[in-house]
Structures are given as structure tokens and as C-alpha cells.
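Pilot study result, target chain (64 residues):
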Amino acid sequence: MRPKRWFTSKTIWLNVIAAGLVALEAGWGVLQPVLPVNFYALMATLLPVANAVLRVLTQQGISR
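Predicted structure:
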């Protein structure tokens, strides 16, 4: 099976979006006022679980 291109990886996109949201919050503080109080704890739990699920479902490696 041929490796897929990196930009088609759901795992990479999940982490890019999470990193972008963290950077947005760290730089401008725009997310905290509109998100529930427990949001950060929920994301700290769900992001590793989502990464693990996507990794288990992955059947191909990625290439450049």
C-alpha cells in the first residue's frame, strides 16, 4: 500500500486545528469568554483519545 500525502491525514488535521485554537487563545484570549468553563478540561481529555482512535483506524503511513 502506498503512503498517503500528509495533508490527507485526519490525525494531522486534528492536531493542526487544536494547535491553531491554542495559539488563538494564547495570543488574543478570544475563546475563553465564549466557551464553557469545563471546555479546557474536556479538550485535555478528548484530544489524546481522538488521536488514539485515529491512530488505531489508520492503515497507511504518510509521505511528504
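One observation from the pilot: Strands lie at 4-5, 62-63. A full batch analysis is planned for the follow-on phase.
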